[in-house]
Structures are given as C-alpha cells and as structure tokens.
Amino acid sequence: xxxxxxxxxxxxxxxxxxxxxxxxxTNSSFRIAIFADLHFGESASTDWGPLQDQxxxxxxSNVLHTENPDFVVYxxxxxxxxxxxxxxxTKYWEQAVWPTRSKNIPWASVxxxxxxxxxxxxxxxxxxxxxxxxxxxxxxxxxxxxxMADCYFQGTTRVELLETxxxxxxxxxxxxxxxxxxxxxxxxxxxxxxxxxxxxxxxxYFIDSGGGSYPEVISNSQARWFQQTSAKRNPSSRIPEIxxxxxxxxxxxxxxxxxxxxxxxxxxxxxxLESVASQEAEWxxxxxxxxxxxxxxxxxxxxxxxxDWCCPHKSLWLCFSRHTGxxxxxxxxxxxxxxxxxxxxSTLKSWIRMEDGTTHSHITxxxxxRMI
Length: 372
Hints:
GO terms for molecular function: hydrolase activity, acting on ester bonds. This protein is an alpha/beta fold. Helices cover 21% and strands 22% of the residues. Strands 1-2-6-7-8-9-11-10 form an eight-stranded mixed beta sheet. The chain has a seven-stranded mixed beta sheet with strand order 5-4-3-12-13-14-15, with helices on one face. Strand 7, helix 5 and strand 8 form a beta-alpha-beta unit.
C-alpha cells in the first residue's frame, strides 16, 4: 500500500488547495479504513465517558496497526455533542483523529446527527444535587459571571468542527458549497491514477445526511449538486465512484434483511440485530445514484450500531460500516469496515476488521449483480 500527494486547486469556501490521493503503481492497492460512530465526549461529566473514549482510541489504534491503511474516513457521529456540557467539543474531535494523525495517515470526515446536536440536560441535574460545577476548557473563561455565561451549555457548530479538522495538514475534509448549508460536509476527493497522475482512478464523494441541528435528510439541492458535480468530473461514467454519508437512506429499509434473521446471499455481514433507522425523507439522491450514475459502485453509511451488512440494490451496493466506538448504544464487538481499491483491473474489495484482529464479511464488488 502506498500513498502519493499532488497539489490541485479546488473551488470551495476556505479550501483553495488540497492534496490528491493516488496509486503508487499500476498493481498497488489503496486501502481505506472507515471509523463509524465513535461518539467521543459521551457522558463527559462522568468517569464512564472518558474511559469509553480511551477504549475507542484503542480500537482505532489496533485497526490502524493491523491494516496500515492509506486513508481513513470518519463516517459521522465522531462526537456525542448532546452530552458535552460546554463549548469544548473540538477537544473531543482532536482526540478522535489523534490515532490516525499520530500514524501520519491522511483522513476525511463527514458529519452525523450527533456531531452538532444540542446539549440534552440530564434530568437528575434537577434533583437534590443540582447542576454540577463545570470547568471551562479555556482558563480565560473560568472566572466571573459574564465569562461563565459564555462557558456553559453552548454547542459547537458543524462549521466550527470542520475548521478544527481542516487545520491539520493530513486532513482532506472540505467545506461544501455555501448554497447547500446548513449541510456542510459535501465534497469530492479523487484518487489519482498511477499511469495518468492528472486523471482520477476513483472518486470519493462525501455527503452530509443531516441531523442534529437540522433534519435528517439529504436535500434535493444536495442531490442536484452531486448530479452536476459527478457529470462534470466523470462525464463518461468511466471512473468508479464511492459514496460516504452517515444516516442510511430509505432505500436501505427496502432491501434490509429481516431484523434478527440470518444474513443470506447475496447480502454479506455478521450482525443484523435492529431495524434500519433511515433518513426522514428521500429527496432524489437515490434515484440519481441508481438510475443515472452507473459509475457509483457502493454507498457506505453508519448510524445503526447493530448492523454491518452489505446488500445489492439495483446497480450498486448499499453497505453499513461497523460500530467502531465504545460510545453510543449497544455492546456488540467493535471494529471497522475496510475498503481496498485496485486500479488495474478496477476492483473494490471490502471486509470488516474487528478490534481483536479477526476479519469477516469479505466481498469483491464488481457490480450489484455479481459478487465474488
């Protein structure tokens, strides 16, 4: 596995320059680790919460050591912002990306519904003990009533989180067009061809599926943005395209195996222990992916901690990742979905790497009608 960097001009807010990922040879692979639903900062005011963050860090470190990926995707719900009582969510974001950053591996992120969710007041705080004393992360805000008013119970916006992420040289996260806001994390990255470095061998699309500060949807505007961008970047549909967003679309519900039942061919996976919690509405993105973009090979989502299956849907595959973090609901064993791309012949493989080092659910995606 190898990684190359090339400079390129990118049109977009506060993103005048980015580095393009690339294959290092015609027969080399490009490996991606997906970390989904880490939920850093959960129960931040308790002893339990920081311990879970340490456990999540261990999972990521184990996966990175074993797989040695070329790239990492943070697939939303990096944080449980609704449990973070002061405006210091960026501290937890930095903790979440540290395992990847410490190994000098580039990454990109897309937002989930919990990343900027409003603080939820615990009911027990209104009992005899009252609201606990909160220590500001910024010492300049720690004294005085006016300063404390600025300290307590303020959320951190998507834009502020992205600013923190994008300041790192290894981060490839980008602001999407302002016309799509409050949806922020909408952008495309390319993996450059080895033979033709100025041409992409694959395109990675990141789409904000909402939630938290606004509804859990991919809007019609986002769908049109994807259609226009993909048509411009890949007019012949020759280049394979891979899509990442957090909350499954309603199409996932249509093809889902019956919850609690075995996952049967042609689907592949190991846990199927809950119903799909989909987006609130469908505003055109799936029609575009399935009917107009034959180049799209697969969509990868998180959100459901008790699902890790991949199933075919029309011309593409719909896949869950694997619950990576110890924060969030459920106690199923943690892991990460791994993707491996090969330029020649063009191939997309995937499997689940567990915290204990084992793997399962290996698939080779050539088209939705064929699985090896």
